[in-house]
Amino acid sequence: MKTFPVLGLPIHLSENYQDLLISRVENNTPTHVVTMNSEMAMMAQKNTDLATAINKADLVVPDGSGVIFYLKRRGQKQQRIAGIELAASLIEAIGKKGKDYPICFYGGAKGVSEKAAQAWKEKVTSAHIIYNHGYLSGQELDDWCETIKKVQPKLILVGLGVPRQELWIMNHRHLAPNAVWIGVGGSFDIWGGVKERAPEFFCNNHLEWLYRLYQEPSRWRRMLALPRFFIKAMI
């Protein structure tokens, strides 16, 4: 697959990431998926562990208008694929295959991944989903790792936030070596009804970041990465 560098990090260019990943699930092809946006790209400039995780990933998807703008400025036509939408399409497709294709939700506050799993089971009744929150430690975390090893999910979604989720996946892929692993940020919050995704107007006009800032004002420092990325994109 063709790749193109964004601030020295690889972006894999494709017209259909969903079909590619469904094929990888069905063929037990080990896959770490990173959905990279401008904020993550800037963070990786200082965080060498995150940069390593991105470079080691099997598929890096352009999730964010800034990354698409960067590519367009350099003659690369590529549609944006929101990570939450990609993950949702995979849950729907894989969930229909039933218990032979288990799915794993790991992350979020206590009770959130459970709510997200219940919401998905109402949509896809045949889906087999195991779940746990993202604040495990000690024996609880060891037990959860053993559960993943025993169940061997086909699709593992990790919502621990950036960069923690990318690093956790990189260091724990051995638990289910043939799975497709994806870091999904705050997707469990949205699927579980804890937070709302930006309205369609914001999504269609590249302003999803503004709605997130409205929901979480404490993110303002992290959002400073966006204008810095824009400047780099213009060079």
Summarize the structure.
It is built from 13 helices and 8 strands. The protein is α/β, with parallel strands linked by helices. Strand 7, helix 8 (164-172) and strand 8 (180-183) form a beta-alpha-beta unit.
> How many β-strands, per DSSP?
8
Compute the number of structural domains. 1
Q: What is the tally of helical segments?
A: 13
Mean pLDDT: 92
Structural class: alpha/beta
Tell me the Rg in angstroms. Answer: 17 Å
Separation of termini?
Answer: 26 Å
Helical content (DSSP H or I, runs of 4+): 40-55%
Strand order of the largest sheet: 4-3-8-7-5-6
Pfam families: Glyco_tran_WecG (PF03808)
EC number: 2.4.1.187
Protein name: Glycosyl transferase, WecB/TagA/CpsF family
GO molecular function: N-acetylglucosaminyldiphosphoundecaprenol N-acetyl-beta-D-mannosaminyltransferase activity
Could you characterize the architecture of this molecule?
With 235 residues, the chain is of the alpha/beta class. The protein has one domain. Helices cover 50% and strands 15% of the residues. A 6-stranded parallel β-sheet has the order 4-3-8-7-5-6, with helices on both faces. The chain is globular and about 50 Å long. It starts with a strand and ends with a helix. This is Glycosyl transferase, WecB/TagA/CpsF family. One of its GO terms (molecular function) is N-acetylglucosaminyldiphosphoundecaprenol N-acetyl-beta-D-mannosaminyltransferase activity. Its EC number is 2.4.1.187. InterPro entries: WecG_TagA_CpsF.
